[in-house]
C-alpha cells in the first residue's frame, strides 16, 4: 500500500517534543505581530525530519503538497525537503512540475528556514540552466519570503561562478527594511567573496554607502580585521 500524507503527518506528530516546540516557537518569532505569527511547531530536530523525508521520499506530488500546506511547521519542512529530494533525481519534465508546485505554494514557504534549505535546489538549479526571470519576479513581489527566496536562490549561480544576478538582486533589495533580507543579501555577497573577493569589493565600492549595516557586516565577515574596519567606517 502506498504511503499517504496522513501516514507522514502521523509519523511526525508521534515524534513531537512539546518543550522543544515552545522554544522553537519563540526562536522562529511566532508571537503576535512577529514575522511568523501563529506558526505551529512539534519540536522536531532537523535529523528527525530528514529521517521522515527518507521514509516518505516516494510520496506522490499531491500527497507532498498536502504536507507543504499543513499548518504545522515541520510538516511543511518535510514536504519541501521531499520535493528537493525528488527533484534531485527527476528528469527535467518532472523537475518542472515540482518547481511549478513549489512556486504555486510559496505562501506556505513562510519562514527563513523553509526558504533557505529548499529554494537553491528547486529555483536556483533552474536558474543555472538559463532562465533567470523567476528570480526577478520573486524579488519584485511585496512579500518578505518571496524576496528572500529570490536572493538565496542565487547561491546556485554563485556555486558555478556566476555572480551577476546575485549583485543585481542584492542591489534591488538594498532599500528593504527587514533585517531578514539584510542578512540574506549579506550572506550571498559573502558567498561571492569566498570565490572572488575582487568582485565583492567592486560591488562594495559602488554600494557601501547605501547598504544596511547588517548586510555589510555579513558581507565582510571573512575580511581581515583591518579591511573590515575600513568598510565599516565608510
Automatic annotation (TrEMBL):
<dbReference type="Pfam" id="PF08713">
    <property type="entry name" value="DNA_alkylation"/>
</dbReference>
<protein>
    <submittedName>
        <fullName>DNA alkylation repair protein</fullName>
    </submittedName>
</protein>
<dbReference type="InterPro" id="IPR016024">
    <property type="entry name" value="ARM-type_fold"/>
</dbReference>
<dbReference type="InterPro" id="IPR014825">
    <property type="entry name" value="DNA_alkylation"/>
</dbReference>
Amino acid at each position: 500500500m502506498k504511503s499517504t500524507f496522513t501516514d507522514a503527518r502521523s509519523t511526525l506528530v508521534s515524534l513531537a517534543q512539546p518543550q522543544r516546540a515552545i522554544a522553537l516557537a519563540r526562536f522562529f518569532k511566532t508571537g503576535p505581530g512577529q514575522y511568523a505569527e501563529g506558526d505551529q511547531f512539534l519540536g522536531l530536530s532537523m535529523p528527525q525530519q530528514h529521517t521522515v523525508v527518507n521514509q516518505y521520499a516516494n510520496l506522490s506530488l499531491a500527497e507532498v503538497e498536502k504536507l507543504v500546506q499543513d499548518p504545522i511547521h515541520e510538516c511543511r519542512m518535510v514536504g519541501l525537503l521531499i520535493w528537493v529530494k525528488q527533484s534531485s533525481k527527476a528528469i527535467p519534465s518532472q523537475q518542472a512540475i515540482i518547481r511549478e508546485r513549489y512556486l504555486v505554494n510559496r505562501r506556505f514557504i513562510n519562514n527563513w528556514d523553509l526558504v533557505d534549505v529548499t529554494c537553491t535546489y528547486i529555483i536556483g538549479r533552474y536558474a543555472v540552466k538559463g532562465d533567470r526571470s523567476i528570480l526577478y519576479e520573486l524579488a519584485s513581489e511585496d512579500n518578505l519570503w518571496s524576496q528572500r527566496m529570490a536572493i538565496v536562490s542565487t547561491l546556485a549561480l554563485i556555486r558555478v561562478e556566476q555572480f551577476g544576478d546575485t549583485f543585481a538582486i542584492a542591489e534591488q533589495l538594498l532599500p528593504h527594511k527587514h533585517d531578514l533580507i539584510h542578512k540574506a543579501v549579506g550572506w550571498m555577497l559573502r558567498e561571492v567573496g569566498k570565490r572572488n573577493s575582487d568582485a565583492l569589493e567592486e560591488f562594495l565600492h559602488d554600494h557601501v554607502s547605501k547598504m544596511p549595516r547588517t548586510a555589510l557586516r555579513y558581507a565582510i565577515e571573512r575580511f581581515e580585521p583591518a579591511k573590515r574596519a575600513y568598510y565599516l567606517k565608510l
